Amino acid sequence: MGAVPKVTRAEAAQFARNPLAFIAERWTPTGRTVQRAALAALVMTVVIVVTGGAVRLTGSGLGCPTWPKCTDDSLTATSEMGFHGVIEFGNRMLTYALCAVVGFAIIAARSQKPWRRSLTRYGWAQFWIVMGNAVLGGIVVLVGLNPYTVAAHFLLSTALIAVATATWQRTREGDAPTRPLIGKAVAQLVWVLTGVTVLLIAVGTVVTGAGPHAGDSSDVPRMKVDAIGLDWESVTKLHAVLAWIVVTLAFALWFVLKAVDAPAGPLARTRDLFLVLLAQGVVGYVQYFTDLPEVLVAAHMLGSCAVWIAVLRVLLSLRERPQATMEVPGPVASDRLASASS
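The structure corresponding to this sequence follows.
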């Protein structure tokens, strides 16, 4: 092993003032490293969403009955709290893991040469959404798993997935102005598809909030959908109708893209979306007709994340952003510059 390099007082002061700049001066990650860091942040976001669903499905939502501590007297879960305490506290710990992964993505983006400021901003956006969702998660516990706060917790995670997906896409493209790959009418169809997907996810949170999986063995309140003249099965059917609309729009989009001879990127992303939607639909119907077994509900939550990512990838594939290039003067221009300077 080599000798450990000494850190001078000036270097320590520089690190304290601006640690990101300090690291960026001494490390230059490859483009692939930055891409992998952004992808890791996206994957970890999906993992924490699914494990959050596991907390709910195992009835461990109040395994740690308070926040930010697990109990009034202990920061961590105790042996007396059993399985539910371990599950809930473990999910809380994953938040720190997510922060670490997002933090590495920020450091990698800041250290890339040349520095792409937009990537760093995307990374910080993820970080602050994680922090906000952590606080919201604490509020969910403090209000006894109120279903409306639980729904907001999931929707904010959905926003985090959107930012993480956009960040990953930005690491794989340049900084030049965007160029559309398809016509405006087709782009509008994709925006409609995206909007209906958002509505589908929102109604899905109502299905969960009014359904039987309350997240804890105690008497947890459910969403009162009967106040608007609906019952749980009616909301579930509305969710299914919206899902079929999304499938229809995806199918129509694929045919339109083929008709206008669209580039391979949008076609491939639309095909992927259609396949993910079919798989999610199968899981959804099976779980409905088998009285919502926990395993299938968890698979459906994972599928919800996959559908949202697939829709966003379709949206982001409608344009390209080439690498920004600097114009280099040709021989004639160089001679003119030399003559002007002399």
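The CA atoms of residues 41 and 230 lie 39 Å apart.
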